Amino acid sequence: MSSDAMAIRTAEAAGHSWLEVLHGWVTTVDHKRLGIMYIGYALIFLIVAGFEAIIIRIQLVRPHYDFISPQVFNRMFTMHGTTMIFFVAMPILFGFANYLVPLMVGARDMAFPRLNAFSFWLSAFGGLLLYFSFLGGSGLYGAGNAPDVGWWAYAPLTAPAFSPGHSSDYWTIAVMVSGFGSIGTCINIIATILCMRCPGMTLNRMPLLVWLNLVMGGMVLITISPLTAAQVMLLVDRFLGGHFFDTQAGGSAAIWMHFFWIFGHPEVYVLIIPCFAFMSEIVPVFSRKPIFGYPVMVGATVCIGFVSMSVWAHHMFTIGMSSYSNAFFTITSMIVGVPTGIKIFNWLGTMWGGKLILKTPMLYCIGFLFQFLIAGLTGIMLATAPFDWQLGNSYFVVAHFHYVIVGGILFALFAAFYYWYPKITGRMLSETLGKWHFWLFVIGFHLTFDGMHIPGLLGMPRRIYTYEAGRGWEIWNLLSTIGAFIQGIATVIFVWNLIISYFKGAKAGNDPWDAWTLEWSTSSPPPAYNFATIPVVASRRPLWDLKHPEDPDSQYE
Amino acid sequence: MANRDNTEWIVVAGRAAGIFVLLTGILLAAGLCTASPRIANPVPNIFNPLSTPADTISHLSRFVLIICGLIFAVVFTLLTYAIVKFRSSAASADREPAQVYGSTQIELAWTVIPILIVVVLFLATARVIHAIQDAPRPAAAVEVTAIGHQFWWEFRYPGLGVVTANELHIPVSDPAHPTPTFVKLLSADTDHSFWVPQLAGKTDLIPNHPNEMWMEPHRTGLFLGQCAQYCGTQHAKMLLRVSVDSQEEFAAWIRAQKQPANQDEKEIAGRRIFETTACVNCHAVGGTVGTGRFGPDLTHLMSRQTIAAGAADNTDENLRLWIQNPDAIKPGSLMPAMQLSNADKDALVSYLETLK
Q1: Which residues of chain B lie closer than 8 angstroms to A391, CB-CB?
Q2: Is A385 on the interface with B (CB under 8 A)?
Q3: What is the ipTM of this complex?
Q4: Which residues of B touch A250 (CB under 8 A)?
Q5: Which pTM does this prediction carry?
Q6: Domain B142-258, CATH
Q7: Greatest alpha-carbon span in chain A
Q8: Percent of chain A with pLDDT over 70
Q9: Which of residues 239-258 of B touch A (CB under 8 A)?
């Protein structure tokens, strides 16, 4: 209703009917509109999957609580994980990449605008397909509805014997379809970066956001392929009587794990690298200094890209690999921490000696730094194979990866929202609401996930719908549930801020943060095709050169 | 400039040391609170190990935790310092700070130091991996085969001819004459994982992919664990108990388990119900026609403290409920509701209760 009303109002202002406006959005190939659609679509799924998380937390508030049945609980954590990874984190990051990369390289659009639209709609329909399983998943068998095999869907739990009906098929096809969308988008991002840069923008002068998205794009092309291959094999097993993962007929459950995690672990870096990109743009602007060690930051990212391809089996330390394999994946997993550490140090170096302006985007960046530090260190613990024999699949792991994904990725995303919202809408987000959002979210986050490490140390495995009393787990679960509600309230404030600021926010102007990259040289929101004349750049910070003609960066590069 | 840097580092180091002492204090306190003598703690704390592999892991874990704690303290202090020190003030509001682009020496320092830390951590880890995974098997080792089922554990002692379920009995190991238990891990259906935190790290039970793990407990007592790999609807109630017995207790337990099932003529009615209904499709009782292996072996059912893989205590009331309506105890378990008349149920339960 209300979106209709909004559409009608904007339509009247522009002299178009709401149908024409809708048609304009559905058929658009404009990178900015597609970026906004990616982000909006991901936000809707963020709310849905966040709601699922709340349901999970209510069920776990105390031992032997029966808020929901085990069947429903298993569907909830499967849908929560699958949605958050494939239909929230990836599309929202693609949305920002879509919106920002052409603007930052001084291009008028992505390299392949139609492919861009096609990729978005593939991802969008993938998400709808996944959720249609609530209605269609029981199929003719009348068994189950939404997928309940966990987001990594280990074989042979996905075999027809253990997963009758069509719930696993919905999971498989939805993930595969959205994977095609991801590949299309990443081909587009890579082509745009390699071929569409404005005059003067050598690879060595690209903003770090662009560099990091280039690495991310390359990683997606490599890692989605084994996932898609595995999904095809699973479909062959389920529909054509294949035996790839059919352990009763000589198939291998372990091979699915390898296929899944050779996608799954680089995927974590596919998600975090664009967040490193946000950090690398926002921290310098709010420290009033250029990024510390630009070439090292690029090198570290490329290094992460390569090394993260050879760490996957640290998810499989408990499956009985040989001691040599366990040692190998221990060292590779620890080594990937080195370039990641270098990045944290370089952001610290950027802040050191700067002039820190603690507005909401910077607050989120600072939150990211502390939380990602802890996430990295618990990652080192999990990389230690024998430690992982205890910690693996326990609540310690759940706490660890939520520290990465919420404390790291989501915090960086919130920073990006507060930073680029003025560019996208032409209006500032409210600082007051922003600070409320930040502090409530920080409290909620730490209440939920700090204590969650401890039941893992006390032997609580993940993915259990209820637990025994008297094992020292009760208090931590209770705190987590309270924290989840506080995060929920903070998210409501955020969404309200997005809506109210669109109508009532202060006008942003072209360059509200006194920033240095090309997107701030055009109007907010940027006009169709971004730049009337294609800019020419002479350094990594073209707008600094413009604002400081007496001391331009181009002198030093 | 150099001097100033030095004093800053001293302050930083001092704070780091303070935080480190605090963190270790908290850890120690936590360790002391949960340590308990003789009787195994109901809290399966990985830092309260009572068995060789768990103990080795715990030592390495503490070492890694301390290194990570130190790194955290240093970086945390630097970050906090930077935020407090370099915050924009009214005095500096109009001026841009010095534009520094980087420093090769500093970059080198914070690349090389982490690499050295990784080398140390890796060497310590590789030693423990080797010590646990490639441990020799002494001739006196006890052999057990654990088979994961949806949603219970089958334990077989191949050398001893004993079969039981959900409650594993193993002997305590005397360091002078070690009798560790080596467990072969198999699965009848989906993936499971054997995890008793105080005895050893977890190892998965994967169909068509046999695994092995071992335990060498130093103390007697009851140790709790549960399935640690999502295996389907009732993953949560696939609980695991390991009773570490003294050598004499273990020998006595084995003797008792090898006895044939009780053949009390008074309970012939209940036995007939067991043998003529669907019970025998899944359950075995030695000396009867029941030889099913889909569910737990019931030959010595009453020697176990729990039913339904630890989901309920083994009481008369719970047995009745379990036979009548398994979903009331464990919704989604593969035991069907038996739909018996009250008389039949009474007879069956009193028969089962003779299976000591």
Answers
A1: 46
A2: yes
A3: 0.92
A4: 208
A5: 0.92
A6: 2.60.40.420
A7: 75
A8: 96
A9: 239
